[in-house]
Structure formats: structure tokens, C-alpha cells
Amino acid sequence: MENEVRSQPQNWREARRLQAWKLKQKGWKQKDIAEAVGVTPGAVSQWMKRAEEAGVGSLRYRPSPGAKPRLSKTQQRELLVLLEKGAEAHGFRGDVWTQPRIARLIKREFGVSYHSRHMGRLLKQLGWSHQKPQHQASQRNEEIIENWRTETWEEVKKKRN
User: Fold this and answer.
1) I need a labelling partner for 110 at 20 to 30 A (CA). Which of 50, 133, 141, 149 fits?
2) What is the pTM of this model?
């Protein structure tokens, strides 16, 4: 248990709680500890109770787990498959994914509401980026390109010479 107190604290709040514990072990009164570390006696009381019941480790910093994801892992994988099909496949005009479009797709397909501004963060968590360039444009028409090369480009070259 002493080893937990000696390792480096992760932030100043944790350091304050651990310092309060050390002072308590030296026999300090809670009101004196509170004054020394700059908190209320009630805060010191809560820390000491927690340390006595769950150990000194309970005074350590624990990052918040955050909110439960609204989409299950399966739904997240399904979303990636839907996005790969392109925006036009889902009834949007133009094959460009925007954050509001993705939010509407999620609402329609999974019944889950997200604010459109959250889409970038969600997609980053899923490892998907709409900014990754495609190898070729989806609107590419090989026949028109070949016609331009053989006719239009030849005319442009003649005019330059």
C-alpha cells in the first residue's frame, strides 16, 4: 500500500489527495489537512473514508470512461459498409459525404440521433476518413476522356505550333 503513495501522481488533484493521506498517517487532524492542501474538511473526510474502505489506490486519478457509445460495435461496422457504398447509393445528390448527411444516414438506418458536428469525431474513432482520395473519380467516363485526348487535345496542340 505504501508503494502506491510513493509512485508519481498523474495530476495535481491526485497529488493533493495523496498528500492529504500522508498527513493523516502522520496524525494530522482533518481540519488542519484541509487547510494545508487547500480544500474543505468535508473533502478530506470523503478522501479518508474512500482510502480506508477501498485502499490508497482509490485516491489515484481514474479517467472518466465517458458516455456509453450510442452505436453498438456491430452497428459501427455496418455504418462503415454503408459509407463505402457512397452517398448517392443512399439517396443523396452527389457522391460526397458531409457530416449532416452521415448524421441523417445514422438516424435513418439505426434510429440513433447524433449532432452533425459529432460525426468527425465518430468517424475518426472508427478509422474512417472521407478525405482519403479515391483512385479515380466515381463520375469518370473513359469514353469522353479518350475522345478529348484524340480530338480536342490534338486540336489544341496544332494551334500551339
Assistant:
1) 133
2) 0.49
